[in-house]
Amino acid sequence: MDAPSFALLFPGQGTEAVGMSAGWEAHGPWREALEEAEARVGAPLRRLMAEGPLETLRAQRIAPYAVLAHSVGLYRSRRALGLPRPVAATGHSMGFYSALVAAGVVPLSAALDLITAVEDRSEAAFGPGAMGMAFLIGIAEAEVREALAERPSLVLSNRNGRAQFTVSGPLAPLEDLVAEFQPKALKAGLLPVRHPLHGSHMTSLLPAIARRLSAVEPAAPEFPLLSHFDGRVLADGQAAWDEGLASVALPVDWLQVVDRLRALGAPLAECGYGSQLAGLTRWADRGLRVASLQAAP
Questions:
Q1: What range defines the domain where residue 61 resides?
Q2: Is the pTM value of this prediction over 0.90?
């Protein structure tokens, strides 16, 4: 691919779709990443990507693995086809795990195990149907914060744009929040996530998650990584891995990430299926454009 060196953006859960693997199945690095992921998690990721059904691909114990493996396989395939090493990379939510693997901080197996650890600990802590996340689009931040002040069990978990947010917490007050904002928001609803990610509800789970991944020895990143929490540069491998472990309890502030990307001045490219981060980046800064690495050559 003839292009200058990009700053790469790795998308998170919600980008999974039937057909996401089209054109990449024959590329060795992509196939090897998917084979490794399938062996590690025991799920037919390639078949579900190619054939569905979509509801199975979107399942909580399938979608994160599919997104991670596809993004990593896509990056490795693009590199084999001549893509220059990125000047920096980041990821939105669990997309940061893809960035960790792409940068060589940890192997793919470690990132897959981190997803499993988060799922296991969250299910044990919260049980089914108790917690979740909601999205609000087209509402001013001050209005969102005012509504949350009346619902102290809820947490502002993502600042995705100047009028695009997610909230985490118990399901009943989330449903009440969505009902309040649906008449005046561009969009408002519950996300297909069973855990209160990127908020203080997850903090108590971090020690057990870290113990489960204690054997992982992070390496120095091959290129700088940017925190999705505040956009700061994570140039050290241990710091980057610590950020990955803590990320499930750290809010996502895409506005700060975009500020850092703007300062870098490099062209931007999304390394994954769809245009999740192209859309979020435009919500933060209408002047920024994000290319896609998805189309197979």
A1: 7-125+201-292
A2: yes
